[in-house]
User: Fold Major facilitator superfamily MFS_1 from mine drainage metagenome.
Amino acid sequence: MIAATTGTANFFSSAVAAVIVGFLVRSVHLSAGGIGVLMSAGGIGGILGAFTASAIATRIGQARTIWLSVMTTAPFGLLIPFTERGAGLAFYVAGILPVSFGVAVHNVAQVSFRQALCPARLLGRMNATMRFLVWGTTPLG
Assistant:
């Protein structure tokens, strides 16, 4: 299940990444610098998620963290298409920051969960297989 959810998320994240810059340039009419500033909001969300993932997993458990981190933050991505110049840029930030936060929390929790369940002698094989499955969807998106 972890491979399916993470692979699906990577597929759709890649699809969005392929068109988001075009959207911001053509529809929102942003400069390269403006796009960079907006993209940094995603980086901030990811950093915050990575730093808080352990505390969240300790509080609610790793298994719950895996699915809750995605289910509670992914809907914010629906705000991104409402992005407009000026005050409408807040839609992009309000969408990308929590989504990036959730992705980081999910990634930390699911890797930790897998490593805790897998026997030490199989960790290399398990991680190689998981990387193939979840990263293999990225170029398809």
About this structure: The two ends are 19 Å apart (CA to CA). The mean pLDDT is 93.
